[in-house]
Amino acid sequence: MTESIFNYDKVSDTLYICFAPNQKATGIELNENILLRLDKRAGKAIGLTIFNFSILAQQTEVGPRSFPLTGLAELSVELKKIVLAILLEPPIKNFLLVSAYMPSFQEIIPITSLRHMESAGVYNFAV
């Protein structure tokens, strides 16, 4: 895999991170602000698009903002397994921290937050 390529559009406040240029991919909407592009057959990430990047990257007084991965519920069991495996491995885990929120012992809601982007090689594009 080549070095990640970053493209930030200030007007739309969108950050696109490309891991494998010029490869065909399937888009998976993880939630309304995060789109994962992947090669399903190879089980690898091709790119990651983060809409409203400057808002999602802002810290709150208690830490990073977390967002439910609502799009996972719409995937087949097989595709969900592929996506979760991709989310938990580099390069995606370098940018997204995936964890779980448990409103009860019976319910688990996958959530994510953006990792500190400067440590991941992304500079403060949104300033």
Structure description:
- The protein is built from two helices and ten strands; from the N terminus they run E-E-E-E-E-H-E-E-E-H-E-E.
- The protein is mainly β and 127 residues long.
- It has one domain.
- The model has no long low-confidence stretch (mean pLDDT 91).
- It has helices at residues 53-56, 77-87, and strands at 5-9, 14-18, 26-31, 34-39, 44-51, 59-60, 63-64, 67-68, 96-104, 107-114.
- A five-stranded antiparallel beta sheet has the order 1-2-5-4-3.
Strand order of the largest sheet: 1-2-5-4-3
Which sequence of SSEs, written as H and E, runs from N to C? EEEEEHEEEHEE
Mean pLDDT: 91
Strand segment tally: 10
Poorly predicted segments = none
Count of structural domains: 1
Provide a quick synopsis of the model.
By secondary structure, the protein is mainly beta. 12% of the residues lie in helices and 42% in strands.
Helix and strand topology:
Elements lengths: L4 E5 L4 E5 L7 E6 L2 E6 L4 E8 L1 H4 L2 E2 L2 E2 L2 E2 L8 H11 L8 E9 L2 E8 L13
Antiparallel strand pairs: 1-2, 2-5, 3-4, 4-5, 6-7, 8-10, 9-10
Tag the structure with descriptive keywords:
127 residues, mainly beta, five-stranded antiparallel beta sheet, three-stranded antiparallel beta sheet, 10 strands
